[in-house]
Amino acid sequence: MNKQSIILGIETSCDETAAAVVKNGTEILSNVVTSQIDIHKQFGGVVPEVASRHHVEQVTVVIETAIKEAEVGWDEIDAIAVTQGPGLVGALLIGINAAKALAFAKNKPLIAVHHIAGHIYANRLEQSFEFPLLALIVSGGHTELVVMKDHGEYELIGETLDDAAGEAFDKVARVLDLPYPGGPEIDHLSKKGEASIDFPRSWLEEGSYDFSFSGLKSAVINYVHNVNQRGDKLCKEDIAASFQASVVEVLTEKTYQAALEYNVKQAIVAGGVAANNGLRTAIFDKFSSTNISVHIPRLELCTDNAAMIAAAGAILYEKKQFASWDLNGRPSLLLT
Ligand code: KG4
Ligand code: ZN
Q1: Do 172 and 217 meet the contact criterion of CB atoms below 8 Å apart?
Q2: How far is it, in rounded angstroms, from Cα 159 to Cα 142?
Q3: Which ligand is located closest to the Cα atom of residue 88?
Q4: 310/118 Cα distance (integer angstroms)
Q5: Burial of 105 (0-12, 13-18, 19+ CB in 10 A)
Q6: Whose CA is nearest to atom 13 of ligand 1?
Q7: Which residues contact residue 3 at a Cβ distance below 8 angstroms, ignoring those fewer than 6 apart?
Q8: What is the pLDDT along the chain (336 residues), one digit of tens a residue?
Q9: Which residue, by CA, sits nearest to atom 16 of ligand 1?
Q10: 100 C-alpha vs ligand 2 centroid, how far in Å?
């Protein structure tokens, strides 16, 4: 990237209110995230109305803090990037309206960022990209394999046909009476258990890079019901380890096969489930015998944050792809 840029990023698509300042799409000057997880925990998942209300309360102070911590003046900020979608519409609108108001008041260009592009570009805050590149995006709402031949160009080659990987973690955790969000809980329990239960792997048809996790989720639910009906004791550790092994094997194998078929130079993983220890280890192991470089961001860049939105926004800034004042939240926005 040639053009110098300092971008303010804003992210409010789900349950994190976040703002960050990023230089040249690669250097984090500040990265402020307030999570609502503790609030949503009591409901066992994200309640959209509650999320919106907390974004309203937090967004201004989070943006002010991000600017203060970055030690930049408004005159140094080149543009404001905000998540346009996908996500909860009410939550998205809080960030979008804050971004619009600031862009208008401070006379800055407005940039609309796809949330998944943000997750992908979280990697570039640590590692430069080599094309062609393969990205596995695994979050609470998404499971996608995307090939990129250049910056800002996305080709979707596979996606989930039903539940997202993170959603499967969260639903299985609920069956095991574990708190929300379930991914970190299952990850933690897995370390203490054995992957001794033979849960199914959903490969779909030969050569397909699509995913399906609902059958696995049903298999775990049936297993738990059977054990309970027999009056036996549930070994949550083994269930967690066996479930995680199934998800990790399918994600890793499909990513590997796609990386070979598309002859990529680099494979990256993004999204909340990229924080999973089993997945991180399996991906690095699988690619260790290849020349393909692998990158997975540090944990705080895997889950939702605004530095990733500013990083993806920097590419659009360079291309001068600015949003207009009628920018709206798009809950089902496609990655194009
Ligand atoms: O990317 P993210 O923060 O929000 C979305 O855009 O969805 O992802 C949240 C998802 C949740 O489903 C959560 O359970 C999962 O990421 N997650 C994990 C781990 N940490 C977070 N899943 C498995 N293992 C983890 N360590
Ligand atoms: Zn996300």
Answers
A1: yes
A2: 8
A3: 1
A4: 8
A5: exposed
A6: 183
A7: 317, 318
A8: 456 899 999 999 988 899 999 999 999 999 999 887 777 677 777 778 777 888 888 999 999 999 999 999 999 999 999 999 999 999 999 999 999 999 999 999 999 999 999 999 999 999 999 999 999 999 998 999 999 999 999 999 999 999 999 999 999 999 999 998 899 999 999 999 999 999 999 999 989 999 999 999 999 999 999 999 999 999 999 999 999 999 999 999 999 999 999 999 999 999 999 999 999 999 999 999 999 999 999 999 999 999 999 999 999 999 999 999 999 999 999 998
A9: 272
A10: 22
The Cα 67–Cα 199 span in angstroms is 48
- Helix, strand, or coil here: 147? strand
Give the span between the Cα atoms of 253 and 247, in whole angstroms.
Answer: 10
Ligand 1 atom nearest residue 181's Cα: 14
Atom number in ligand 1 closest to CA 115? 6
Residue minimizing CA distance to atom 23 of ligand 1: 183
Q: Check if the beta carbon of residue 278 is closer than 8 Å to that of residue 190.
A: yes
Q: Which two tokens stand for residue 54?
A: 């907390």
> Which residues have CB under 6 Å of ligand 1?
14, 139-141, 166, 169-170, 181-184, 187, 271-273, 275-276, 303-304
Closest residue by Cα to residue 144 from 317, 271, 277: 271
- Nearest-atom index, ligand 1, CA of 16: 3
- Residue 214, amino acid: S
Q: Which domains does the chain have, with CATH numbers?
A: 6-121+302-318 (3.30.420.40), 130-296 (3.30.420.40)
Judge whether 126 and 294 are in contact, CB under 8 Å: no
CB 20 within 8 A of CB 307: yes
